[in-house]
Structures
1.
Amino acid sequence: MNTQDNLKRHPGEETGQDLNVLALVCNWCTYTAADLAGVTRLKYPTQVKLIRFMCTGMIDVRYILRCFLEGADGVFIGGCHPGDCHYLSGNLKARVRIKGLRPVLEMAGIPEQRLRLSWIGASEGKKLQEELTGFTSEVRKLGPASFRQMHLV
Amino acid sequence: MVMNNQEPHVGVYICHCGQNIAGKVDVQDVARFAKNLEHVALARHYQFMCSDQGQEMIISDVVNNGLNRVVVASCSPRMHLPTFARACSRAGLNPYMLQMSNIREGSAWVSLDGKQATRKARALVAAAVSRVQKHRPLTTRKIGVNKSLLVIGGGIAGMQAALTAAESGFPVTLVEKEASIGGQMAKLDKTFPTLDCAACIGTPKMVEVAQNPDINLLTHSEVKEINGFVGNYTVTILKKPRYVLHERCTGCGECAGVCPVTVPSEWNEGLGSRTAIYRSFPQAVPGTFCIDKKDRAPCTGACPAGVNIQGYVQLIGQGKYREALELIRERLPLPGVLGRVCPHPCESNCRRTDVDSAVSIRALKRFAADNASVDPAAPEVERPEKVAVIGSGPAGLAAACFLRRQGFQITIYESAEHLGGMMRTGIPDFRLPPDVLDAEIELILKTGIEARTSQSFGQDFTLDSLRSENFSAVFLAIGAQGGTGLGLKDEGCSGVMDAVGFLREANLGRRPDVGGRVVVVGGGNVAMDAARMALRLGAREVTVVYRRSEEEMPAHAEEIEAARQEGVKFSHLTQPCRYILENGCVTGLECLSTSLGSPDASGRRRPEPVADSEHVYHADTIITAVGQRILAPWASAVPELEWTPKGTIWVDEQTLQTSIPWIFAAGDAVSGPATVVQAVAGARRAAEAISRYLDKKEPALDMQPENPRPEKNWNPLPKDVKPLQRALPGQLEPQIATQGFQEVEKTLDVEAAQLEAGRCLNCAVCSECMQCVNACEREAIDHGMQAEEIQVDVGGIILATGYELYNPEPLTQYGYGLLDEVYTSLQFERLNNATGPTQGQILTRDGRTPEKVGIIHCVGSRDKNHKDYCSRVCCMYSLKFAHLIRERTGAEVYSFYIDMRTPGKNYEEFYNRIQAEGVHLIRGRVAQVTDVPDNPEDAGRLLVVAENTLSGKVLRIPVDMVILSPAMIPAAGSTETARLAGVSTDSHGWLTELHPKLAPVSTQSSGVFVAGCCQGPKDIPDTVAQASAAAGEAVALLSKGWVSTLAERAVIDQDICSGCGICTQVCPYGAASILPEKRTALINEALCRGCGSCSASCPSKASTVQQFSSRQIFSEISGLLKAAGS
């Protein structure tokens, strides 16, 4: 994928109508990788904003739903590679929860492509850049979402 | 302290971080934006918020302007959260009333465009402002720290760290997976740039470690599990068995002198060999020897009798034939017999087949039996109990032998005139000469066994008579002595006989007249024996008739081949249907052709007769070899003895005890017709059961199935093993063989046997031949030693798991593994080392002193196809090699480098010195190393082809030796160990430090530190410095003596909790439990690590991780999205 292309301006950005991608990430791996991406000056779309958690295992599905309901166009979850969880298996619990959430999203009319779970290790700044850039461009293809008005729960 | 119900007054501080943030983000704009957010009392921006002045600004605002919440928008909270939390504390504000907004790594540094970066920074600040309003004051507690340390890895880093900590007064447990500490450094000869002798500076450290009373040294051990948290770790350590008692071993080395097994020496990087019982090098610490045992060898695993095959094969290889024979006789009292007739399942499982073909194990067994003699003594202890053994076949003789060894009084009853059972009457003399059998029976009886022949059970003696003679137990091994017919009409006519009866007659010297034409019906080994015997009795034409194809024949391939060689004809797919008689005498056999249908219960394809295919074989004698029966005319007199539906004696599977408690049985009478070795195996088991029975062990027979060692982890197949022809014993010419009853197969000669034993690959490494046990005067060797798991409690952990070399084989252009004279750097270190395979002489494999040597830098490192990093030490040690080679051999040295990297104290000076010594330093990557030289006079040399990139010329340099400097990679298993300690690794497997500059020995797991090459390639001085630093950090933690509990931990709202218990199931630390009296959940504060599994799983949302409550997260989400949308 072409990072530069994804970083260029898109219509609606100036007026604040551009995409919102929230990344709910683990402190020990993906957040660390994001810091590494920063230190090494790797660019990724500014539409992505990170929320730091101690572990993907503490991410309640309500948080993901709330992101969509408050206007997020895509939600990215970044956790440790299986076997690397700082708390043994929180990442695997997250995987199970997200698997269970997908049909619920579909039922609510939220395409499941708007939710991505990735494993990004602490040293994988480059992977973080690629994943976030790729995910943003995929969400961009789906267009802006309009779940803000939905009364899902 | 701020009250919860106070209106939020938020102070927002935007950091410029010099130009790091302000260069991209419009900090003034963000401050203006923040000022207008709800509940924001003030918003400021400042050049360096982390500076004293910045922190003072916050303190002053809290004190003077009544702020009760603080947002700092600067760098990552992973960097400065503690800094600003301390500032809040100093201002009297609870440190958890702070939220950081990461606008440096999170915006300024990752955004291309200033406007976008500013917009993002606004959103991040808005989110933090929104979130911090939901923050609540939190408190922590102090927890004590266990004042001891664990160091994993006993190389120079681990030793240095352990010594530093121990000298500070803290007890250290040092765990090393190898048998000796010292690590890679102990393998080196000299060290750059000072050319200190590695042993001279390394071994004193090793001794110091071993002698330090505060260091608990655990070698040959591995960390299996790490539980707990900073200051309070519980570590499970597996102490692998050494099989040598540390307290007794004096390190004299007598054991290694007698060990028959040699394998490549890991210590010498495969250049030399070591024995199975070994000490890597004379200066090893501890100096205790160690036995290398892998899983049980596949041959021994396949042997029904469990004979230690690898053991006796190795002993034969050493010329210790008597010892080999003794080892065989331990489990097989009939080695001469089995060396001739065993169907050798061991050979089918031999791993040598992966190289060429199986070792001729049976021939070696026979060789031992034929070339050595033993003199078994009577048992040391005599026991009064009497045991009767009925039957003197292999089961009876073996059981008698095993029981007699335990001191019991044994009497063998045999119905025939001579002992031996089927071995005498069933197996023809040309396969098993009677004198061999007689000699072996003689040896068994010699230990004090009484044999009564011509005694038939039921006639000459009975169970009652045995009782009255005070026998305490009976072993019934009556075999399957009856033959069976085809079940056709006229079965009993003259000229038709069963093979069992025929062979008995023939073997007992009553040579029956078979006429000129003989037909043998059947496809088993007995049929082959009968056919070959018929030839020797004068038959001109012998035909074996079998109803399936040759593939399905149960006879062993070599028996079929032997019969064919001697002229036996085969008629497969032929089924007898009628005897043809003339005057009551048989003259022929009418048969039908068959074709094979679907497989039957035995898995073999069922023969189906073809209609109208009748044809006749003319015969003077027809021998039926289609099965054996158990003959027990006495059965009706012993009604208590139970039989199986197959007509065999019923026994308990484990104990081989029959339905009559004092009677045990084994052999063909239990299993149906089987092999000699299976009979011996059954006898061994029964003997063990009888012995337990007589010992009155209650429950007498609690034997478990034999639990063999797993069979998978074997000595790896050596790479350089050359295929060799398998030794085949000589055979008598068929024309001569069929003229008489002389033994057909010959024994191996000494030379062939030695060669053959040398083909064994020593799958189990230690062959358990027990030669070392006999050699050790201190009785220090214990082959039964078991692995042991221990637990230690420590406060901190230092990982020093080290490095190894990248295998250069994939870089085929350099020929490593293909060309003999291409070495790795560590191999050269050993070659050059006084304790190495050449005692420090630099010699080629064929013993020449090299005249020209090539050294290739950056093999696999700085290479995108392999490892893209620089391994840091290779330039320097390559220069050291060049110097040592020049000094010791005077050879010309060509060193091929990409860039010369000499960053270190006195390193550049060393480089200059080597240049001045006349070493050819050539800048250019080597294209190829080949053994095809340009000039005929260089035959036998290697040719190094490279471009000198400074002169632009292609060089083709003939050399005698090439040394590769491969990339350093993390030691095998270091990732797994890092995971146990909660430390992550980078894409190459190097352990990740907390911060590359400011926390180079700490890790993200608080209380876990890294030292040495496990964190990345480095030289010895850096390693030692880093190890001291890691020890310093660890000592700081231990001396402080406490750590605080996490504020970010789970709490349960007791008013909401329904007591469902899901939290107790998801908590990985067992911190959640249900209070029985209230039926609600409670989290143990000390155990909770704050992962939040419980809070995300809690159906009633009673569980919350403090500082990560859903209210806080929701506020952060809406803060982010509202700002972005505004």
2.
Amino acid sequence: MARIEIKDLTKRFGHINAVDDIGLELEKGQIIGLLGPNGSGKTTLIKMMTGLLTPTSGTITINGLEPGVETKKAVAYLPDRNALPDHMDTNKLIALYADFFDDFDSGKARAMAEDLGLDFSQPMKKMSKGTKEKLQLILVMARKADVYLLDEPIGGVDPATRDYILRTIISNYNEEAIVLISTHLIADIEQVLDDVVFIKNGKIVLHKTAEEIREENACSVDELFREVFKC
Amino acid sequence: MLGKVMKYDIPALGRRLVPLYLAWIATAVFLGIMAGAANMTGFLAVLSALLYGVVTTAVIVMTIILVIQRYSTSLLGDGGYFTNVLPVKAGTHILSKTLSATLWVFISGLVAAITGIIIGLLDNAGTVMDTFHAIGYFFGELTGQDILIMIELIILVIVSAAKSILAVYTAITIGHQSGKHVVLSSIGAYIGVLIFETLIGQIVFKAVDINEVTINSLEHFSDIQLFFFGTLIVTLAIAAVYFFVTRYLMTKRLNLQ
């Protein structure tokens, strides 16, 4: 049984199918790129996996279960916005995660925040955009989850922060897990991907390993992306 | 898990309300001193009364706004992207928000009473002991049945407040189903909720043959008990309907966009 199984999944907003009859099976032990341009359905698909959106039709299972309290114990989610209470400082946010997630490693989060030179008593609302994103990522990656869903983790940050985020993802995910990263910034992320899913207008147009893409198409994932999604 | 969620919900409202309570008490002290100085016609006296009125209004309005805001932002706004991925049942979130909001509404009522007492004591500083004697006399005269009725009345007020808060949460959650024009849809849903509640009230009153005349003429203790428990059960039943509707929408129809 695949760790994530998606069958005939559709999400309709009005007359638009944001996700259109998708089927997908994702196995553990991989970093997967969910790649597509803006508005292709990446965020909608991830939000259905977290239970934040209810599918119009079709099913999603994670570890054999539909999204609910049990899957939320196993999924670490980084949304595409700041969702944490921004009056809290790093100390309080670490305590908040420790209160709700049994798989959260406070010591690891603390060590990563120290490496970053974070002021533990500074409220989140006073942090820069990049620091906020790094702190959110630290909290997510300090969990020993089965599935990490990272929605645009490198969008809108400077190249140095981008490098830090990618290093943090690679060095902290456990090898039994799935890391699903959604982005349209392929070149920056290509080197860490094991598996690649292209999504276009709510449909999966390609699902291959990064190695297969390079061998079969004789080009990089970034080059193939530009070819598939050229305007 | 309810305790863990409430651990964060209670301070979230208190953080904004406690400073307002302090300002409220300060303006009550100011008003009490000015009123006690026997120059109520002076500028300071008018100013102190005005200040007290403004802060009182601010606390009432802010309590309502914060109760609504806490629910809508932390569950259905950006905060929902964190709150709704916690391994917590939707029912637990709703219950926590309802209990926390009810607690703060109750505390707001208590602070209102405290400001009233402060003004009364400072205004009549020379007759403080007389006031305490009067209060003592009043409670001394009460029978066991009177005290029981007072306690029941307080319980009914608290349960009604919780039910009204749940009604607002239900309306907001229904309003969010529209996806667009969320505020307008929520107001529309709230009007619908109020109509539902009025209809239920009328049906129940008709079924048990109670009207305003019979309520006003309740004299026997047993009649009052019957009325109290009847009202409590109906209020709890309406609250339960709101809870289950909201829980259904949060569990089966959640659509954070």
